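Reminder to self: tokens first, then the designed residues, so the page reads top to bottom the way the pipeline ran.
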């Protein structure tokens, strides 16, 4: 099986510092780093949703299995595909609206302190035979974590796009490609 990283390691479409209102989540104003990555995939929203939430499919292009029942309030884990099945990332499903929106928390397993938990939103929208997938990773600890997330999402989503459009991930693991 392919072994990836929690984020992968490529280039983010947009990495920025963001101040946004947290009132929808019941919190206060946040000025933590955010990265957003947008890609267009020759697929359907249903197939993109399945590729993000099916453990066997994520293992194919991400090198980890995303494991959950994907119900609001459920736990999810980003597990290695080797015999240990060690979770490198874990969190809670905050929103699950198949096949258009998935929101999860993202943290190191066992470290769910509020200042260490980030949030990932997958927005899936169909447009005339293609899908726009927008991934927003918010509440990152600092600029270094934002940069790592931006590189990682670019690698993982490039592999996802290839996987859905051709049936195979890229021939090389993109998170292993050196970054300038």
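Designed residues (180 positions):
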């Amino acid at each position: 099986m392919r072994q990836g990283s929690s984020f992968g390691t490529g280039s983010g479409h947009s990495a920025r510092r963001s101040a946004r209102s947290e009132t929808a989540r019941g919190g206060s104003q946040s000025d933590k780093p955010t990265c957003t990555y947008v890609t267009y995939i020759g697929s359907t929203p249903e197939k993109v949703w399945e590729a993000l939430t099916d453990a066997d499919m994520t293992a194919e292009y991400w090198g980890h299995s995303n494991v959950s029942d994907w119900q609001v309030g459920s736990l999810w884990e980003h597990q290695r595909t080797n015999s240990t099945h060690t979770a490198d990332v874990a969190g809670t499903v905050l929103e699950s609206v198949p096949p258009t929106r998935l929101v999860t928390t993202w943290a190191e397993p066992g470290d769910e302190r509020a200042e260490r938990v980030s949030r990932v939103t997958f927005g899936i929208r169909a447009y005339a035979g293609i899908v726009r997938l927008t991934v927003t990773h918010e509440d990152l600890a600092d600029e270094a974590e934002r940069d790592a997330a931006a590189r990682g999402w670019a690698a993982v989503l490039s592999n996802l796009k290839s996987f859905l459009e051709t049936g195979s991930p890229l021939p090389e693991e993109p998170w292993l490609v050196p970054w300038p």
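Residues 1-29 have pLDDT under 50 and may be disordered.
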